[in-house]
Design a protein that fits this description.
It is a single chain. By secondary structure, the chain is mainly alpha-helical. It has one domain. 63% of the residues lie in helices and 7% in strands. It contains four helices and two strands. It has a two-stranded antiparallel ribbon with strand order 1-2. Helix 1 packs across helix 2.
Length: 116
């Protein structure tokens, strides 16, 4: 969790934009299956099958059980939770604590190679 916010260069706007994209592409299709009808249902059904198929295929390549793909939408929700929790904690605390040492947000931004 300590690196989640740094991956967004300590910008909450990047976390929000990334969360929106992740939600639209990887969570919404699963939710849409219960909310839409007609052609849209076929579209989202195909999207879900492609997502799950891709995850299952990659699981097989990694010698994992392809049935793990069924947990994909929950994994995406968990990822969103982790990124938001880490980001908000870092902002509220003014930094992170790692291995017993506190690093201020100012210090983290100063040493971040990508921070602008």
């Amino acid at each position: 969790m300590k690196n989640s916010f740094s991956g967004a260069n300590y910008h909450l706007s990047i976390v929000a934009a990334g969360s929106l994209v992740l939600s639209l592409f990887f969570i919404w299709p699963f939710v849409a299956l219960f909310l839409v009808r007609g052609g849209a249902l076929l579209f989202y059904g195909a999207t879900v099958l492609l997502l799950l198929g891709g995850v299952a295929l990659n699981a097989r390549r990694l010698t994992l059980n392809p049935w793990r793909a069924l947990g994909f939408p929950f994994t995406m929700l968990l990822l969103l939770y982790i990124v938001w929790k880490a980001s908000l904690q870092t902002l509220l605390r003014g930094g992170i604590e790692w291995r017993g040492t506190f690093y201020s947000l100012k210090e983290l931004k100063r040493v971040s190679p990508n921070h602008r």
